[in-house]
Amino acid sequence: MSSSLYALGRLAATRWRVVLLAWALVLAGVGGSAAALNQGFVNSFSIPGTESQEALDTLSQTFPEVSGATGQLIVVAQGDRTVDDPEVEQVVEDLLPPLEDLDQAAAVVSPFAEVGGGEISDDRRAAIVQVQMDVGADDITDETRDALVDLAEGASGDVAEVVAGGGVFTGGTPELGITEVVGVVVALVVLFLTLGSLVAAGLPILTALVGVAVAMLVLVAATSFFELSSTTPLLGLMIGLAVGIDYALFVLARHRELLADGVEPPEAAGRAVATAGSAVVFAGLTVMIALAGLSVVGIPFLTTMGLGAALAVAVAVCVATTLLPALAGALGHRLRPKERRARRGGGVRTPNRVALGWVGLVTRRPLVTTLLVVLGLGAAAVPALSLRLALPDNGTALAGTPARVAFDTISENFGPGYNGPLVVTGGIVTSDDPLTLVEDIADEIRALPDVADVPLAVPNPTADTMIIQVVPEGGPTAESTERLVDEIRGLEDRISDTYGVDIAVTGQTAVGIDVSSQLSASLLPFALLVVGLSLVLLTMVFRSVTVPLKATAGYLLSVFATFGIVVAIFQWGWASSAFGLDTSGPILSFLPIILMGLLFGLAMDYEVFLVSRMREAYAHGASASEAIRVGYASSSRVVVAAAIIMVSVFAAFVPHGDATLKPIAFALAAGVFIDAFVVRLTLVPAVMELLGDRAWWLPRAVGRVLPGVDVEGEGLARRLALQDWPRPGARGLHAEGLGLVGRRDGAVPLLEDVEVAVEPGQLLLVTSEQPLHRAALALVLSGRTAPTAGRLVADGLVLPEQARAARRRVALVRVGDGGDVDAVADVRAAVADGRTSLVVDGVDLLPARDRAALVRAVVTACREDGVAAVVTTGPEDLREEEATAREAGGADVAVATLALPTPAAPEPPRPAPVSTTVDSLLEGAR
């Protein structure tokens, strides 16, 4: 991956005009598509397959009169008046005609109507005028809402106060405010302090804004094909902006570090994208996988939210690996840190004294640090034990809005249950007396303990479907309302047996309860998915077992502590006023899953950037303790800056009035702060110090099957170091200090300190007493398996980093145990395919005549096609093969011989057959 990203970053920096033009065209294209295809976002929450949703869908067909949104005008008598006073009655009567003429109004129900009315409070001081709409809440126009508000304000006076509310005010797309800009400004300040240059600080902001613009416009255009929640673009904006700035910062910081070391801008851009960009791609993929994993819950609105946010992250990764290096290429040396600042440690080049002081403090008593962090986060997580989930209702709307004022007015005058009535429906087509049947079923429901009232129980006009409106004692999100839904559903069998009616509980309150229930049930499977993914990915990255376990445990601590803080503030109401909350209640039902998915990706991001530097130092010979300090000092500055930016961007969305976005933004800000500063920058070095060398332990069996992920570009660094070895432009096969340890039946040394130098047109005859050793060399030289020591270049390609490309240039011909008489044809076919190097193994298995023919074919390829060739043979046949080669090649082909050094460790007592062991090596290479 690092090699591909290196090429991409270098190309972007070199051809920066083309890349900038391409991004401009992308921006213009998605902008035009958004303008042409925009159908608007929706604000509905549905969960297909549940009883409540299926019943609601059925009602839209059998009882369309009650399937649309409902508007309300709540009339509250003033002074000592009641709704029975003539002047108050007149206020109500005067409202009815304009409501009936209202666009999108299907029916208006007076509180004084004999049938279907009766929405009058027990103290007769308030009444509700119901306005049934012919469309859902998402299709209500602003003109309709404004008309309801105008009617209410016009009717209010000394006689009565009229408030507009109801489900028609739950639609609409949340809007951005000035506070979101504050987060960007804070990010700019942090970037300037970190990078020491206003131009450099502006680049991550610019690229992040381009990324979120592209992602948001794609989402707007997608509304023509999918139903997207109104929260989807805001969530994508928040996440895309945060990760976009962070990812660009990681790449830009590495780019400027390389510039300060004297690397030219295009090369610096390529190396920055290959190293920091590899970690960015890895981190971005983990975030996208976690967000896309929200689809496993099976709730459409949550799936679209996750995919929308994943799109924003994907665009941020693309921007950081293409647009940023292009801008870096355009700016050239202007991004190079000043020498004065470099000497003072203004970038990330020199050790950070503050970082060294902190890491020294937390690792001086690592056990004490670990216990303090674990106990502290454990205490913060305690409130999470009382976590309750629910969807937002009008009670969480911003104070002063029509939806909130109406909600509070109804709760005060009628009781909280009137804000979330339940609807019980069922088919009654077989009944001879539908009115009596419906009333009998309503009486069954009235007898339940959590029922406040059953104001409506009627069949539809065709008498095939009934609806019974049930008012709970508690509000839409109260625990008693959840119990009532379960109690009514508990009557289903009894009512079916007694009355022959299959009832179902529906309505927006029941749908919300079902959504929350399914989300709660999905938490554990999703957590297992995220934790399992974390363990696998980190094991691949760090080639360690303990580091992933430590990282995952830290992630779980961060998640649970964040849940605890969110519950304490949003559910319990602790210090709620400081965060702009005027009410408390259950936590947003899909917040835990979104938090777990996002925090997972971000936590792994910081883990990779911090610990990979420690691993790099350890791999270069530093002790475990010294590696912690070196890695921490070199990466913590950027991690701190990235975390501050993340927290600032997320926190800027907390003052937002949207009830869905506010708790998500707060949870993400708190989660990133805890994970970055408490877990990664404090707990991680302490635990690493406790583990010592054991931190990098990996069972050999796991290492054999686990693919490697080079997020720090170690392979690229090796490739760049060997690109001019043994000399610029060298071709053929060259190896120095080559070693290979077998992977079957323990660590068996097969090659040790082997040197090879074969130029085009030359032939090297290799021999050894052990056929397995000769076969191992053939596999290594041809790029079929990776050496475990030394350096190897095949036709200018560094192995094993460029093994795939090398296999297209280096042919491997293996002679079978039974004597492969087609080996000569294989050699000729390899040359005909344009292979420039050739490795032939097992010549000694052929009869004498066939051996000679095969050697002559190889020599011919060297002489006529300039092939660099290596042929392995047994020691007893070496002289004969050498003579044949010299005779066939004459003065045109240089022939050399090599006896493989015998490895220090002995052969295993029962070696596997050569063919079997070679096959296992090939299997490992694949």
From TrEMBL:
A molecular function (GO) term = transmembrane transporter activity
Q: Which Pfam families match?
A: MMPL
Return the Pro residues bias intervals: 903-912
Q: Sorted alphabetically, which SUPFAM superfamilies does this protein's record hold?
A: Multidrug efflux transporter AcrB transmembrane domain
Provide the protein's localization.
Cell membrane
Task: Give the keywords, sorted.
Answer: Cell membrane, Membrane, Transmembrane, Transmembrane helix
Main location as per UniProt: membrane
Known InterPro entries for this protein? Answer: Acrflvin-R (IPR001036), MMPL_dom (IPR004869), Mycobact_MmpL (IPR050545), SSD (IPR000731)
Specify whether Membrane is a keyword of the entry.
Answer: yes
In what way does this protein cross or attach to the membrane? Multi-pass membrane protein
- Which protein are we looking at? RND superfamily putative drug exporter
Taxonomic path: Bacteria, Bacillati, Actinomycetota, Actinomycetes, Kineosporiales
